[in-house]
Here is the input.
Amino acid sequence: MFKEELARLEREGLRRKRRTLEGPQGSLVQVDGTSYVSFCSNDYLGLANHPDLIEAVCLGAKQFGVGAGASHLLLGHSALHEQAEKALAEFVRQPAALLFSTGYMANIGVLAMLAGRNDAVFCDKLNHASLNEAAILSRARFHRYPHLDMDALEVLLSRSVQGRKVVVTDAVFSMDGDIAPVPKLLELCEKYDAILLLDDAHGFGVLGDGRGILAHFGIRSHRIVYMGTLGKAAGASGAFVAGDEDLIDMLVQKSKSYVYTTAQPPMLAKAILASLNLIEAEAWRRKHLAELADHLKSGIGDALMPSNTPIQPLVVGASEAALKLSAKLMESGMIVPAIRPPTVPKGSSRLRISLSASHTFEQLDRLIKALKDAAPY
Here is the structure.
């Protein structure tokens, strides 16, 4: 049924294939019986295989079993979930928080609750796919403004006659590594009476002493709806939404991706609690990340896109060229993923170099040498 379409994707260098990880996540991974240095995970703080998280999961499983057994509203909401939600709200300095099974589910559930047929949603052109999908599912009028173009956004907001207005953006853009101008976004939302939904999937744990984009900019506002994921820098799984208590209560009442799904395993909430302790206590992880990024920039130079985050993209251009460079690096014992359309715009295929606090400078020097040997990219 799909042979022709799959063949076309293969010809265009767009067919995706999975690799099978044969052990824990980390800077060194085992794939198909071979050891590689990995620059492709979002485990920014190196916590995914931390002994404290492993111990927490084991203890949580002993206390509460494995599966939650029901949705949060049908007695699947455990004491561990409750503790994690309170800890997350306190950590990001918001009144309340709500756990979701994934960031994708959180975005869909939140935006569909915030906006409907008579409302309007305004999205950055480079937002994550889950935010675009959420905007479509909300049935609100869907506007997309050019990446980080605040003037264009203001024009759209000023012309909107819809009821509720919701501005939606990644806090850290996952393929470019740049940071949204949150103070200006909030200023526009205040001017045009809009809500600001921030997807901080790649900022939580890394920016603002680990507390994310709001702490990074020193911002608090009742207009902000904050979403953070827990499977990236936090090293666990799931996501959370934080904001005013009324917002969280409304999500419990009306967010379909929260109401109509089984709660995440309670043992994961135990791991989240352990992760928050490490994020707060071990600031050296963020310091090391920043030093790694500076070291990579000094070694590669202008070939990298501007980014002050662990996401360091190297734009190659054509999909085939990105795949060839990725394959060459793999021959040298390093996994760096080639990112191609539709994830990124046509003609901007790239290597997405993801740094982790578990990387060493020696590993990074290997990557820099291999990239220089492969130049021109």
About this structure: The longest strand covers residues 311-317. The CA atoms of residues 91 and 327 lie 41 Å apart. The domain at 51-281 is CATH 3.40.640.10 (Aspartate Aminotransferase; domain 2).
